[in-house]
Here is the input.
Amino acid sequence: MKLIGPLRLLLASAVAVFLISAPAIVEARTKVLQPVFLFDVANTTAQQTEIALRRSLAGRHWNITRDTPNDIEAKLNVRDHSITTRFSWTATQVSIVYVGSENMDYEVDGAKTYIDRYYYRWLKFIKKDVINYSQRANASGALPQNLPADNDDADDDDSPAKAGK
Here is the structure.
Protein backbone atom coordinates (compact mmCIF):
# COMPACT_ATOMS: atom_id res chain seq x y z
CA MET A 1 0.00 0.00 0.00
CA LYS A 2 2.95 2.37 0.50
CA LEU A 3 3.59 2.22 -3.27
CA ILE A 4 0.23 3.83 -4.18
CA GLY A 5 1.22 7.27 -2.81
CA PRO A 6 4.33 7.63 -5.02
CA LEU A 7 2.41 6.30 -8.06
CA ARG A 8 -0.28 8.91 -7.56
CA LEU A 9 2.37 11.60 -7.27
CA LEU A 10 4.09 10.38 -10.44
CA LEU A 11 0.80 10.26 -12.35
CA ALA A 12 -0.19 13.72 -11.11
CA SER A 13 3.21 15.08 -12.15
CA ALA A 14 2.92 13.57 -15.63
CA VAL A 15 -0.55 15.06 -16.11
CA ALA A 16 0.66 18.47 -14.91
CA VAL A 17 3.61 18.43 -17.32
CA PHE A 18 1.33 17.49 -20.21
CA LEU A 19 -1.18 20.23 -19.40
CA ILE A 20 1.56 22.84 -19.11
CA SER A 21 3.26 21.80 -22.36
CA ALA A 22 0.06 21.27 -24.43
CA PRO A 23 -0.18 24.93 -25.56
CA ALA A 24 3.47 24.77 -26.68
CA ILE A 25 2.72 21.67 -28.75
CA VAL A 26 -0.19 23.39 -30.48
CA GLU A 27 1.86 26.55 -30.97
CA ALA A 28 4.66 24.60 -32.70
CA ARG A 29 2.15 23.32 -35.26
CA THR A 30 0.87 26.77 -36.20
CA LYS A 31 2.29 29.97 -37.62
CA VAL A 32 1.02 33.51 -37.66
CA LEU A 33 -1.07 34.02 -40.78
CA GLN A 34 0.14 36.90 -42.91
CA PRO A 35 -2.67 38.56 -44.88
CA VAL A 36 -0.69 38.48 -48.13
CA PHE A 37 2.10 36.15 -49.30
CA LEU A 38 4.14 37.90 -52.03
CA PHE A 39 6.98 36.73 -54.21
CA ASP A 40 8.86 38.24 -57.12
CA VAL A 41 9.13 36.83 -60.61
CA ALA A 42 11.96 38.17 -62.75
CA ASN A 43 12.10 38.98 -66.46
CA THR A 44 8.65 37.77 -67.51
CA THR A 45 5.50 39.27 -68.93
CA ALA A 46 2.20 39.21 -67.06
CA GLN A 47 1.00 36.53 -69.51
CA GLN A 48 4.06 34.34 -68.86
CA THR A 49 3.55 34.73 -65.11
CA GLU A 50 -0.11 33.74 -65.47
CA ILE A 51 0.76 30.66 -67.55
CA ALA A 52 3.49 29.65 -65.08
CA LEU A 53 1.04 30.06 -62.17
CA ARG A 54 -1.69 28.03 -63.89
CA ARG A 55 0.76 25.22 -64.68
CA SER A 56 2.09 25.26 -61.13
CA LEU A 57 -1.43 25.01 -59.69
CA ALA A 58 -2.36 22.17 -62.04
CA GLY A 59 0.90 20.33 -61.31
CA ARG A 60 0.25 20.55 -57.56
CA HIS A 61 -3.40 19.40 -57.86
CA TRP A 62 -5.07 22.70 -56.98
CA ASN A 63 -8.62 23.17 -58.30
CA ILE A 64 -9.44 26.57 -59.77
CA THR A 65 -12.77 27.63 -58.28
CA ARG A 66 -12.99 31.15 -59.73
CA ASP A 67 -11.20 32.59 -62.72
CA THR A 68 -11.11 36.27 -63.74
CA PRO A 69 -8.71 38.09 -66.08
CA ASN A 70 -6.26 39.14 -63.35
CA ASP A 71 -6.83 36.73 -60.51
CA ILE A 72 -7.60 33.11 -59.75
CA GLU A 73 -9.20 31.59 -56.70
CA ALA A 74 -8.02 28.03 -56.13
CA LYS A 75 -8.55 25.27 -53.56
CA LEU A 76 -6.15 22.55 -52.46
CA ASN A 77 -7.43 19.40 -50.75
CA VAL A 78 -4.90 17.24 -48.91
CA ARG A 79 -6.39 14.34 -46.98
CA ASP A 80 -8.98 15.97 -44.68
CA HIS A 81 -7.43 19.47 -44.96
CA SER A 82 -8.18 22.18 -47.49
CA ILE A 83 -7.14 25.74 -48.19
CA THR A 84 -8.64 28.29 -50.54
CA THR A 85 -6.53 31.21 -51.73
CA ARG A 86 -6.71 34.03 -54.26
CA PHE A 87 -3.77 34.46 -56.64
CA SER A 88 -3.10 37.77 -58.42
CA TRP A 89 -0.12 38.55 -60.63
CA THR A 90 1.78 41.10 -62.63
CA ALA A 91 4.87 40.69 -64.80
CA THR A 92 7.07 40.98 -61.71
CA GLN A 93 5.10 39.67 -58.74
CA VAL A 94 2.59 37.07 -57.54
CA SER A 95 0.30 37.83 -54.60
CA ILE A 96 -1.43 35.06 -52.63
CA VAL A 97 -4.25 35.98 -50.23
CA TYR A 98 -5.85 33.59 -47.74
CA VAL A 99 -9.58 33.07 -48.42
CA GLY A 100 -10.51 30.13 -46.19
CA SER A 101 -9.58 26.69 -44.91
CA GLU A 102 -10.85 23.52 -43.29
CA ASN A 103 -9.02 21.55 -40.58
CA MET A 104 -6.01 23.87 -40.72
CA ASP A 105 -6.05 25.07 -37.08
CA TYR A 106 -7.17 28.53 -38.20
CA GLU A 107 -7.53 30.65 -35.06
CA VAL A 108 -7.82 34.32 -34.24
CA ASP A 109 -6.22 35.19 -30.90
CA GLY A 110 -6.40 38.88 -30.18
CA ALA A 111 -4.49 40.76 -32.85
CA LYS A 112 -2.84 37.62 -34.29
CA THR A 113 -4.28 35.00 -36.60
CA TYR A 114 -2.78 31.51 -36.66
CA ILE A 115 -2.87 28.69 -39.21
CA ASP A 116 -1.24 25.27 -39.59
CA ARG A 117 2.40 25.51 -40.70
CA TYR A 118 1.65 23.41 -43.79
CA TYR A 119 -0.28 26.34 -45.28
CA TYR A 120 3.00 28.13 -45.96
CA ARG A 121 4.71 24.95 -47.06
CA TRP A 122 2.08 24.42 -49.77
CA LEU A 123 2.35 28.07 -50.87
CA LYS A 124 6.13 27.73 -51.10
CA PHE A 125 5.70 24.76 -53.47
CA ILE A 126 3.70 27.03 -55.80
CA LYS A 127 6.27 29.82 -55.45
CA LYS A 128 9.12 27.46 -56.31
CA ASP A 129 7.29 26.06 -59.34
CA VAL A 130 6.32 29.49 -60.72
CA ILE A 131 9.90 30.71 -60.38
CA ASN A 132 11.25 27.53 -62.02
CA TYR A 133 8.80 27.88 -64.94
CA SER A 134 9.72 31.55 -65.32
CA GLN A 135 13.46 30.87 -65.28
CA ARG A 136 13.05 28.19 -67.93
CA ALA A 137 10.95 30.59 -70.01
CA ASN A 138 13.68 33.21 -69.76
CA ALA A 139 16.35 30.72 -70.82
CA SER A 140 14.44 29.28 -73.78
CA GLY A 141 12.16 32.14 -74.76
CA ALA A 142 9.04 30.00 -74.17
CA LEU A 143 7.43 28.38 -71.15
CA PRO A 144 8.17 24.67 -70.83
CA GLN A 145 5.27 22.25 -71.12
CA ASN A 146 6.17 20.65 -67.79
CA LEU A 147 8.83 20.69 -65.16
CA PRO A 148 11.07 17.73 -64.46
CA ALA A 149 10.24 15.69 -61.37
CA ASP A 150 11.13 17.63 -58.26
CA ASN A 151 12.99 15.40 -55.85
CA ASP A 152 13.03 18.00 -53.05
CA ASP A 153 9.49 17.22 -51.93
CA ALA A 154 8.85 13.90 -53.64
CA ASP A 155 9.33 12.01 -50.36
CA ASP A 156 7.20 14.36 -48.25
CA ASP A 157 4.00 12.72 -47.03
CA ASP A 158 2.35 16.13 -47.00
CA SER A 159 3.23 17.08 -50.56
CA PRO A 160 0.17 18.36 -52.40
CA ALA A 161 1.24 16.22 -55.35
CA LYS A 162 0.36 13.20 -53.21
CA ALA A 163 -3.07 14.53 -52.29
CA GLY A 164 -4.89 11.74 -54.07
CA LYS A 165 -2.72 8.96 -52.62
User: Anything to note?
Assistant: The chain has three helices and eight strands. The radius of gyration is 21 Å. Residues 64 and 74 are 4 Å apart (CA to CA). Confidence is low (pLDDT under 50) at residues 17-27, 147-151, 161-165.
